Amino acid sequence: MNLFKILEDKLVYKEYNRLKSEGRAELFSPNAESMGIIRWGLRLMYIFGPLSLYLIYQNNSAAVFTIWLFLQGFFWKSAVEGKMDSGYPYLEHTDAMGLGFVFMFSIIIALIVWAIWAS
Description:
Layout: H1 3-12, H2 14-22, H3 32-57, H4 63-83, H5 93-118
Helix pairs in contact: 1-3, 3-4, 4-5
């Protein structure tokens, strides 16, 4: 089996296993959608995290966008993991709307920071 897949599965189920060991995950059953969001959030984080560090080291203004993508992956992953102990495995519409607003406002801030850094 692929070593990368084993490591990724450990990271995806880390919060669920912690809640399960504490007895707080009895209402939550992991499904493909919720674990898929965590999986893609982690993928964004471990692709754009090192890339961000490299671009910062190179003093490249594109690092703003890679940092922004890293943070988006973190926010989506954290949002789903935060819902695990409530028993509802999906993001509710208000949660998704809040993340959408964070997405919109943070890209505006990222564009402003990029414009300042690039000039």
